[in-house]
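User: Modeling request: complex.
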Amino acid sequence: MSSGSITDVRDVQPARAADAIDTRLPSMITATTRLRVVVLTIVFLVLCFGVPYLLTSFWLQITLQAVIYSAVTLGLGLLVGRVGMFSLCQMVFVVSGAWMSLRIEQEWSMPFPLLLLVTGVLTGVLGSIIGIPALRLSGLYLALITLMAAGAITLLLKVYKFPNGGGGFWGFDTTKPSGSAALPRPSIALGDIAYFRYSLVVVSLMFLLVTWHIKGKPGRAWASIRQSQVTAVSAGVHTTLYKLWAFALSAFITGVAGALLAAGPGGVSVNQFPVEGSIILLAVVLMGGVYSVWGAVIAAFLLRILPRLLEQKIGLSSEVLTMLFGLGVIQVLLTTPGGIVSDLARLGDAVKRRFSRADAGAGAPS
Amino acid sequence: MTVRFGGVTPIDNMTLTLGAGTNGLIGPNGAGKTTFFNVLSGFVRPQSGSVTAFGVDVLAMPPFKRARWGVRRTFQTEQAVANLSVYENVLLIEEQSSRRSTTRREDVIDAVEFVGLGPKIRHEVGTLGAAERRLVEVARAVVGKPRLVLLDEPAAGLPDDETVVLGNIIRQIPERTGAMVVLVDHDMELVSATCGQVAVLDFGRVIANGPTRDVLADPLVIRAYLGDDESVQA
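Assistant: Request completed. Predicted assembly structure:
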């Protein structure tokens, strides 16, 4: 892979465009990419095989929630960071994912992966319907419209609750108790640790799906839409299609997360999903960082693990944390649009430079 | 063709036939040059008139389809996506185009090398200088199979030596791509160096059209451009 002889390569291999590209674009797979893959694999393996044995069952449950919610924050980060659409109804897609999976499972029994897929696709359809206003509106108005949609659907849930074996469309039997509903787990992942791993794999697949989109044709089209409508149109981007696709994809992964949540310890209950949940979600996503998929992981940590940590170790109530989140969002909006993940990246760069002064010139700050 | 915005008529019953190769389009500020481009690329819908290029009714297509069909455009304010690399920016245009191609990646690299940005192909456009961003726009306009390349003041604000480089690149576009090129610029040196034909617009009308040398010598053109000194004195 020499970076020099560009024309020679073309002469030698005119037929195989893919081979030619590797040589003509020597940085296609860079050292950073390789490092990223290694880090990702380590994180995955540690989460998969280390964490379940290190944690008590309470903390495993909290970590499972964080893992599942990282798909939710990933979905919202996709809309906000990649396409520039502020949606305040992400929690609705979690709810609808959980609800649909329970309802479908009650009617037809199907293999768990297929159930996840069907739930995701149906939630994706719902997502693109809710996304229709996004074709005309943006910014504050889109946020308001999606918040109203969130309110309406949350109201429906308050009335009809999660399916509990009843008949009709809603599958809710008023004579039965309506505490929490739980989805039966797949037979290969009945235990809590096994289910934790199962969820981890599913969520990792969601991350791969999103990364594949971002690095590919949709990602470039979304980047042009985020810059401006004129940019996108003059590049030949079908803005309607790509905006709806972003909403659908975001809702798809969030719906799958909802179904995973429904089969988690304790299942799901109505009170778990207040309307303001979506606002908090947007706050943590902004704090985590919307321009990197890692931001989604940090956002899920802020959302699910940090509150429990503060509560258990310091005795801080979650209301105080909400206020801290508010301050955090202000800090992000004013000083670091890239969120915590960009802070960490800068910190990492600084550390790297300190330890390898020889390379200091090469690692230019972005 | 006629375009009206309220009481303003930036293009007034204009008829213009452009030939193959590079066509210049000049005229004082407000003559309707950019409006004409906006009509072609679909951001403005004319009150009346039609545009036919390569036997296709351009105005019948929605804006994004025109770009896919081959209407490429550079803007006075660059529209290259700041947080994508040069490569990704050019690829964005080519992969959205309606042309089926198996050499897409090679074509993209060719276009980037054509404008001389080969060494910076992986750089984010936001980190490039103004002249380089302009070149990215040109690469986006020429990649693959463009049919109509509209260059809106590509040399505005560039130093002279970079304008010369840009002029050399622009001159090669018709031969390289087979596209019809329309160049709007105030830099007469650039226009006469690159364009075989020039049309002059003034108040939304074509006041002259023909070979560059003849048009630039036309007293009517000189008066429209430099102001009507004699008539003020008279």
